Amino acid sequence: MGKTERQATRLVFLVVGFVAAAWACLVPFAKANTELDEGTLGLVLLCLGVGSLLAMPTAGALSTKYGCRVVLTASSLVACAALPLLAIVSSAPLLAVVLFVFGAALGSADCVMNVQAVIVERAGAKPMMSGFHAFYGLGGIVGAASISILLMLGATPLNSTLAALAVMVLTLLVAYPGLLPFGNPTEGPAFAIPRGVVLFLGVLCFIVFLVEGSMLDWSAVLTTEQRGTAPGQAGFAFASFSMAMTLGRLIGDRVVAKMGRRPVVAIGGLLAAGGIALATLVSIRAVALLGYALVGVGCSNIVPVLFTAVGRQRTMPQAVAVPAITTLGYAGILTGPAGIGFIAQHSNLSVAFLFVATLMVAVAVSSGFLRALDS
């Protein structure tokens, strides 16, 4: 497998990251168009996550049967096509339906792009996974920035998403020749409950994705309500985390090649835990932002390393193992922020964040028991 397949893998990660970020920019417009209050909107937004979680195992089976190229192309195009609908939908039930379809498409693409990434990296016999995941982060940055700029220049949400759709479809056309016409070979059932090392890796993915979801949903709340930061500046917390994570992944393959996978998980977990503690306990704004950046650096290469490990283990067939840990990871994004809210309601947000820090310490310690990281 050569440069064409590697480049195509990077581009499809870019597309999925771009589309997800574009939707984030549309949420306020969807709320205004449907006239939903915050509570009801939160329930409707769950449809996106439910669609993703239900689609991931099916996408893995479909990639085995029809190949990564077919599933990635179809799911990415459906996700792109849903964006203009999300920009104009005006009823809550219709928004729920479109979000479910959008989530299913995004979840399918996310699952199968990792299937392709595992295959391409394994064939290349050198670390590539962090670089692939970095392009997801770059897609998110470019997607959020470009949609925001178009909206600031006076473009309507519909026109902004149509422009984004055109660019993403062209990107998919460029990537298409390098998308794999096959998936992982069928070695067992199409669906399977994760077990053994795959379950262990999935739980670690769950925790790291939980941290990412917590940064996305709660970092701004922590900085405004407990640090006195102006609401207009609260977004710098997540921006510090996101930029640090993307930069960490851009150099991650070289770091993994030099240090090895086990130290990356151990040191990354400790860095993330320390960063959360800094952001939670220190009231100096610059130090708190440094804390969020440390969380991003620490988390940046753990998930790519875990995907590499699941691609090398022999406990379960790859065709079901990769979708299994992808699903567990996204369950962390969905349930983590809700868990943070539950803990905060019964104590406070600082206690909730410190609990998350202890989970990252557990991730660091667990690296010592994962032989799959050395294989």
Structural class: mainly alpha
Extract low-pLDDT stretches: none
Spell the H/E element sequence: HHHHHHHHHHHHHH
Number of domains: 2
CATH superfamily of the largest domain: MFS general substrate transporter like domains
Helical stretch count? 14
Silhouette: globular
CATH architecture of the largest domain: Up-down Bundle
**Sheet bearing the most strands, described?**
none
What fraction of the residues are assigned to beta strands by DSSP? Answer: under 5%
What radius of gyration results from the CA coordinates?
A: 20 Å
> What fold name goes in the CATH topology slot of the largest domain?
Growth Hormone, Chain: A
Helix content: over 70%
CATH top level of the largest domain is Mainly Alpha
Q: What's the pLDDT, averaged over the residues?
A: 87
Distance between the termini: 21 Å
Total DSSP E strands:
0
Explain this structure.
The protein has 375 residues and is mostly helical. The protein has two domains: 176 residues, Growth Hormone, Chain: A, CATH 1.20.1250; 178 residues, MFS general substrate transporter like domains (Growth Hormone, Chain: A), CATH 1.20.1250.20.
Outline the secondary-structure elements.
Layout: H1 3-34, H2 38-66, H3 68-88, H4 92-124, H5 129-152, H6 157-175, H7 196-225, H8 235-250, H9 252-259, H10 261-281, H11 285-300, H12 302-312, H13 318-346, H14 349-366
Fill in the keyword field for this structure.
2 domains, Growth Hormone, Chain: A, mainly alpha, 375 residues, globular
Could you provide a short overview of the structure?
By secondary structure, this protein is mainly α. Helices cover 82% and strands 0% of the residues.
